[in-house]
Each structure stands twice: as structure tokens, then as C-alpha cells.
């Protein structure tokens, strides 16, 4: 079973709560996905409103583990303060740490990310850092005390799938005891299966489900893909090779002559 | 609005969620009441330091403070 910071999580799918056509569709999609962890955010509340209360009521009905994020933060200080606000709001030491470094790609500022992770871990947080697939960055995050590392497949919301599988495989090989989660850039269930077939422990997605024609059906499809990909990894995939190898036995082929083989 | 909370507090020039406000409130609780925040699930930071709920009654606000009032939202 998936274990994150000592907690058993029944599903290897983590799903976001944003961009759905309606709150009811969001709830139905989350349930259909079978996800075990929900990501949420922290935003300014307006005077006289209780927007946060009504959203939080929807989330609590789902009864899943909550992973708050620091989405939109651009500096170490913003990310650290947002994480502390999230801990106050949600009562969890878990934080999906995001520090944006570039507006067009929403690429993580990995330098600020490592610094913020270090501060938060010393402050008692259990950090889920959203990072690139860079080996050195992942090493710094693990050195800082991260037990989970979450590299992107592709930019957030891009639906491109895994554009750089080699470095993701390298991370898997280098960090056999760290929980690795592909976070961001997945567009199709096959992308999620691909991540799981690389040996990743889980995937985190949002837009691909929320923006699908039928988010509930797509959520179910992603859930099935994650299970299939994980089962394939556990079964042991054969390595690819450059030349053909016949699957039908050659001896006994009609008109076959051993001398020609 | 609670008149008792407003009585003695001097008017402070504060920045609340990025907007300038003039409010007679010395504590976070008084500020929230004065501005009409009635949501239960909110968290507050003053000058980028979180003020936990247990300290909302303390007279810790100062002229020029920068205050963020946040609540749960959808996120990915």
C-alpha cells in the first residue's frame, strides 16, 4: 500500500478540486476517481462572504485526506507564509509546496523551492514539493528531509503527458525509498499509466479530469489507468529491444527448412 | 458590528487583502467583526506572520500593518 509520511493511502491517485463545471460534478468526479487524497488551496476571503465555508463543507463530505497547496506563490516568503496559513486552516502538517518561477510555463523555481522546503521541514511540516525532473534538485529536496518528491510530467494544464521519461526513470532508480509522484501535465489516462509503469508511487492530476467532456467518466478512466499501470510495474515489464523476435514458434512451420534458419 | 469592541480602539490605517482600510480595531477578532467577516474557516496573517485563532483576542494590531485573511478554495 502507498505510504506517505507514515500514513497508509488506499489509492495511488491524487486529485485536484479546481476547474470543474460545478461543485456537484467535482464531488462526483472525485468519488468516481477513487482518489485517496484531495488537493485544495488557500485564497483571500471577501468581507461579508463565507465562500471558504461553503467550499469546505463540500470537501468534508468527501471524507478524504487533504493536501493543501501553495499555488501561485512566487517567493520563499510567500510560500512559507501560505503554508503556515494552510496549516492553520486545515490542521494538517502536509503541504504541496509550489513556488512559481516562470509565468508561461509555471515552471517551479527550484532554488526557492529547496530553500522553502528546508524552512518548512524545520518548522514541522511534511512537504510534498512540486519540482522538475532534475536529479540534483530532487537530491537537495531529499537531503532537506522530503520523503515525497513530485516532479512534473509537463507544464501544469498542458496535457502533454510525460515529455522526459529518462530523467524520471533515473529519479526512480536513485530514490527507491522516496515516494515519487508525477504531478502536472497529464492529459490522458495512458499518461497516468505510463507514470505508474515507470515505477512511480502515485500521480496527481486535476485539469485533465475537470476539463474533460465528461469529468466523472474521465475520473473513472484515470483511476483504472493508475491501477493498470501499477499492476504492470509490479508484474515486471519486459525491456524494449531493437529487433523483432517471433512470438509464434518457428520450429514446425509448414515448408520450414532448418538449413534456412 | 459590535460597539463594545469598537469603543476604545484608535483608528488604524491597515492594508487588508491588498486594500487600504481605516478601522478602529486593536485585535484580529475586532477587525474581523468590524469588516463583516463571518466565515468560520478563515486564517489570518499580520505582516506575513500567522496569528493563530487563540491569539485573535490580543491587542496586537499596529498602524500600517499588512493583513491577509484567507479561506479554503479549489486547488490542483
From TrEMBL, chain A:
Catalytic activity entry: [ThiS sulfur-carrier protein]-C-terminal-Gly-aminoethanethioate + 2-iminoacetate + 1-deoxy-D-xylulose 5-phosphate = [ThiS sulfur-carrier protein]-C-terminal Gly-Gly + 2-[(2R,5Z)-2-carboxy-4-methylthiazol-5(2H)-ylidene]ethyl phosphate + 2 H2O + H(+)
Active site: 96 (schiff-base intermediate with dxp)
Root EC class: transferase
Residues noted as binding 1-deoxy-D-xylulose 5-phosphate in the record, renumbered to the chain: 157, 184-185, 206-207
Keyword Transmembrane: no
One Pfam family cited in the UniProt record for this chain: ThiG
Keywords per UniProt: Cytoplasm, Schiff base, Thiamine biosynthesis, Transferase
KW Transferase (keyword) present: yes
Cellular location(s): Cytoplasm
Recorded GO MF terms: thiazole synthase activity
Gene3D superfamilies in alphabetical order: Aldolase class I
Domain named Thiazole synthase ThiG: residues: 4-249
Pathway, per record: Cofactor biosynthesis; thiamine diphosphate biosynthesis
SUPFAM superfamilies, sorted: ThiG-like
EC number: 2.8.1.10
Subunit note: Homotetramer. Forms heterodimers with either ThiH or ThiS.
Function in brief: Catalyzes the rearrangement of 1-deoxy-D-xylulose 5-phosphate (DXP) to produce the thiazole phosphate moiety of thiamine. Sulfur is provided by the thiocarboxylate moiety of the carrier protein ThiS. In vitro, sulfur can be provided by H(2)S.
PANTHER family: THIAZOLE SYNTHASE
Family from the record: Belongs to the ThiG family.
Stated name of the protein: Thiazole synthase
Annotated source species: Camelimonas fluminis
TrEMBL record, chain B:
Signal peptide: none
Descriptive protein name: Sulfur carrier protein ThiS
Pfam families linked to this entry: ThiS
Matching InterPro entries: Beta-grasp_dom_sf, Mopterin_synth/thiamin_S_b, Thi_S, ThiS/MoaD-like
